[in-house]
Amino acid sequence: MNADLLELDRTRIWHPYGPMPAAQAPLPVASAEGVRLTLADGRELVDGMASWWCAIHGYRHPVIDAAVQDQLGRMAHVMFGGLTHEPAIRLAERLTDWTGLDHVFFADSGSVSVEVAIKLVLQSWHGERRQLLTWRGGYHGDTFGAMAVCDPDGGMHSMWQGSLAEHVFAPLPEWTPEWESAVRALFEAHDFAGVIVEPIVQGAGGMRFHPRECVQLLRDLCDEYGVPLVLDEIATGFGRTGTLFAAAELADVLCLGKALTGGYMTLAATLCRAELAAKVDGPLMHGPTFMANPLAVSAALASTGLLQDGAWEADVARIERGLGALHDARELPGVKDVRVKGAIGVIQLDHPIDGVAATRAAVEHGVWLRPFRDLVYTMPPYVTDDDDIARICRAAIAGAAAG
């Protein structure tokens, strides 16, 4: 990739969460296979991010490649309004069987699946209730409905206050009597339309972990007060925390995405219980153009099919053990916490990280990481072997030291 192309990138392309023009030049990728990214200059990097947590099987997996190629020979796309196709039906069957939920609305991104979940919940109240409960530290996407249930102060969307719907935020989830009392008091004080949270792991809002008891309390209170519980498992679904889903069995509405297609293309899904769907009079007012795109759905069938034999469980447990090496970072000055759960490893600093320096340090160790806020973290593909997990740990510790 020559300098002219990189200059076009710098002046024409707006990269995520960055200024225009870009302050830092992105690394040009020429190809990817297994768990490695090959850069245009020939360097190879172990992908410690699974391309923002979705490439759980690595790159160029022969089963998913074959599924997409086969579907391409049939049809690349057909509208889902008034039409249907077998891959979508088969995927809906699998997702409902796996989760115990009844209905599937296919969306084209995780943020849109959250939008659909919010619309579903609000429509079920026929305008009688509009306010949702969530908790601090959450992240649910970058569209307006999703931004409104992200952390309003510590999140990425504080600049939009005044333009977003106003919802109610419980304290950061922690299983203490004080926290439980605070959440109960909010239910007593408000007539919520529903509750939406990320179960067990909060993702881009801070990579925090919380006990299952926090989610169970929400389930119990939702039952007591007659409101639906929406669980956003876009980041945690499909094995990332060590179980197939973090808490799907507690949900009335479930949002899935990211790993759904194994990182091949964008697809998400909003699932719900039949009892909730029955409360929606008339159509659910949403319909993405690329809803249930046959290529994406075929990739998802192949990706989820690779999980059916359960072999991923041993891989995630193995990765969790390997990521224990991150605890060596506790000896570094400025490290506040180190935590590991499933195939997630986090080093948290006591100050905002120098992302450029931390990324450079990881790349020098042959690893791609994407530090942000006060975190150096990794969510590698499940097929990453022990040697590469050790390399990721060394790179993350180096990044924390440099940041």
Keywords for this structure?
2 domains; 35% helix; Adenosylmethionine-8-amino-7-oxononanoate aminotransferase; single chain; Aspartate Aminotransferase, domain 2; globular; adenosylmethionine-8-amino-7-oxononanoate transaminase activity
Describe this structure in words.
With 403 residues, the chain is of the alpha/beta class. The chain is built from 13 helices and 16 strands. It has helices at 3-12, 50-53, 62-72, 86-99, 110-124, 144-147, 177-189, 212-225, 274-277, 294-305, 311-322, 355-364, 386-402, and strands at 29-33, 36-39, 44-47, 103-107, 132-135, 168-170, 194-197, 201-202, 208-209, 229-232, 253-256, 268-272, 335-341, 344-349, 367-368, 375-378. The strands form four sheets. It has a seven-stranded mixed sheet, sandwiched between helices. Strands 1-2-3-15 form a four-stranded mixed sheet. The longest helix is centred in the last third of the chain and has 17 residues, at 386-402.
Produce a short descriptive summary:
By secondary structure, the chain is an alpha/beta fold. 35% of the residues lie in helices and 16% in strands.
